[in-house]
Amino acid sequence: MTAKDTDWDGVRLHVVTGKGGTGKTTVAAALALALAAGKRKVLLVEVEGRQGIAQLFDCPPLPYGERKVAVAPAGGEVHALAIDTEEALIEYLEMFYSLKRAGKALTKLGVIDFVTTIAPGLRDVILTGKVSEAVRRKQKNGSFVYDAVVMDAPPTGRITKFLNVSDEVSQLAKVGPVRNHGDLVMSVIRSPQTAVHFVTLLEEMPVQETLDGLSDLAGTGIKTGGVIVNMERPALLSAGELKEAADGRLDPAEIARGVKAAGLDNAEEVAAVLAAEAGEHAQRTALEEREKARLAGVAHRYDLPLLVGGMDLAGLYDLAQALRDQGAA
Amino acid sequence: MSRKLDVDALIDDPRTRIIVCCGSGGVGKTTTAAALGLRAADRGRDVVVLTVDPARRLAQSMGLSELDNSPRKIDGVVGTGELHAMMLDMKRTFDEIIEAHSDPDRAKQILANPFYQSLSSSFSGTQEYMAMEKLGQLHRSDAWDLIIVDTPPSRNALDFLDAPERMGRFLDGRFIKLLFAPAKAGGKLGLKVVSVGFGMFTSVITKVLGGQLLKDVSTFVTAFDTVFGGFRERAEKTYQLLQTPGTAFLVVAAPEPDALREASYFVERLASERMPLAGLVVNRMAQSGAASLSAARSQAAAETLEERGDEHMLTARLLRLHAERMQLAARQGRLRDHFSAAHPTVPVAAVPAQAEDVHDLDGLRRVGEDLSVQPVSAIKTA
User: How high is the mean pLDDT of chain A?
Assistant: First the structure.
């Protein structure tokens, strides 16, 4: 891959967020595959403990450890990691405080849960800390272990708070190691190496949340990535036909002749249903156009098609290709 | 095949006092709750809908500019019932509890504590806990004969059941007092290991989070002492209330693998907690008036017309549109059937997808009708 041939050259941490139900995990996985194409190595990270990645890639639940889950076109690799908060916190305690045994004892007492309860920001610092460690990690020869890291992040409503860890940490600790750790994490997240992508559907609420999320993010110094419109339906009807369908002006007799010509029974009834379905389709399309207009100009937009047959591994590769075709990777 | 969920029987039954809508995010839970509320009010119940969704659109569809922490009357109910709606403000609710259970000076002290402020506005379990509190309050007030709650959009649906317990455990004086008097309390309980653990625990907190936070927590606990006791007790009462036959859980899902998987977990969890499950609502199901014209046949017919040339291209495109809809319907139907195969006793209501979002009471009313009228299965393929 040559320099400057994608929209996000130089970005090494891709944060993918979106409202629930928009397919954020799927898009994150497709983006990871797209970025890995051409002998690159990409880490896909899950932070909410749902094991969505394992399901997408059709493999057993991921342990807390990085493992290869897929190969990308032309020789790349996607590795995946499902971060377990408790284990990450213990790892953190071990790394910074040599508290190995304490960590185990604390788990036994259920105290880890308690610590993250009294310090709500701590959980987020631990999660983002683990991710930024993977971004920074280098091999012996000095090159990065991963060419890119893709994070399947919390939903749009919580993303800014989640990423803006130094704010959260400064509320709970003015000085000390956790504060320093927070600042280190922030130096990765606020750098040009990180971009936050928003996944949305062309529906009122997800688009509104995307716009709200973008404006929340704007004040933080964290770089905005693209807006990825997921599950877009292909345009089957022309603009003129859509207009007629919406106004109920499609000619039922003409449609019925076609239905008959195709050798189907009950031509009139079928034609009436087809016209009604076209009307609903037109209404839906008009709504989608309105939502698209609201997104115009706010960020670079990518469109991913609806996979009518459902999501499977092959579909994931199709989405990855679509992202590459549009310059996202 | 699964049984059909009889929504009208549920909302008409005067013994139904609480309906809890739960499910993962983005499945239309809030709309379902509001539509049920309106339908129940139209049919004569005095209903309050408690939502946690800050979406303006819902408030506007009910004729209000926005919802707040106290129930507002919704105009436009047809019939003898009444509909009120409110949106949970978790910080306000928490503050009110503090104010109600301590003298003004102490309340002021607690409300100003940095740790309290962070706890009441950003701890992930607070919203769930306060939703339970509010539900308890509404129930105790006895002002409505039906309360419909929509649960917080947590990262997973089970948080709604777990968070109040976790929060209650935390706010309940005992555990936190152990933390600040480890030797004494540990000795009293005769649990040496606990004491050792807690000594280490405070040292870890001090090391990791710094002394200031610990000081804030400690001040908070001292000031909060009198308020603490009742918290867990009330959380437990609300929990028990949820187990009574007057409560009905509706699990809401979209016809997508993730949402239905969450729905399955939820159904299993409710069963193990002995919580009364009324059924599953699957929103946004693709439906067709010509379900007997399958995707494959519709596709083939379109191809026949396309091969013939220009004459019937519009019909060909409409047939492709129908084929796509049928393909989607078939997939969604399969997903729903998988759920029913695993949970054959759970009644299901399938709600057809709407072409437009809900914008007014009539829109909500249509959703309510769709919930109760069960369309003929759309996945029959010839």
Answer: 88
Rounded distance between C-alpha atoms, residue A321 and residue A316, angstroms: 9
**Geometric angle at alpha carbon B329, from A274 and A250, rounded to 5°:** 15
Contacts of B304 in chain A (CB under 8 A): 261-263
User: What is the rounded distance in angstroms from the CA atom of residue B338 to the CA atom of residue A268?
Assistant: 35
Give the distance from CA A101 to its chain's centroid. Answer: 36
pLDDT tens for residues A185-243?
A: 999 999 999 999 999 999 988 999 999 999 999 989 999 999 999 999 888 899 999 99
d(Cα A245, Cα A272) in Å, to the nearest integer? 12
Please list every residue in chain B whose beta carbon sits closer than 8 Å to the beta carbon of residue A93: 204, 208
The full length of chain B comes to 382
Sign of the torsion angle spanned by Cα atoms A309, A314, A316, A321: negative
A20 within 8 A of A56, measured Cβ to Cβ: no
Contact A106 B114 (CB under 8 A): no
Q: For chain B, how far is it from start to end, CA to CA, in angstroms?
A: 18
What pLDDT score does B60 carry? 80
Q: What's the DSSP call for residue B354?
A: P
**CB contacts, 8 Å: A120 with chain B:** 118-119, 122-124
Structure tokens, B1: 């095949």
CA-to-CA distance for A151 and A32, rounded, in angstroms? 9
Q: Is the pLDDT of residue B250 over 90?
A: yes
Nearest Cα residue to A83 out of A112, A67, A102, A62 = A62
Q: Which of B235, B121, B96 is nearest to B169 (CA)?
A: B235
Q: Which tens digits make up the pLDDT trace of A277-288?
A: 999 999 999 999
Per cent of chain A over pLDDT 90 is 66
Do B371 and B7 meet the contact criterion of CB atoms below 8 Å apart?
yes
Tokens found for residue A243? 């207009």
Strand partners, A80: A44, A67
Q: Is the confidence at residue A72, as pLDDT, over 80?
A: yes
Residues 17-46 of A with CB under 8 A from B: 19-22, 25
Question: Are residues B49 and B37 in contact, defined by beta-carbon separation less than 8 angstroms?
Answer: yes
How many contacts, defined by CB atoms under 8 Å, are there between A and B? 206
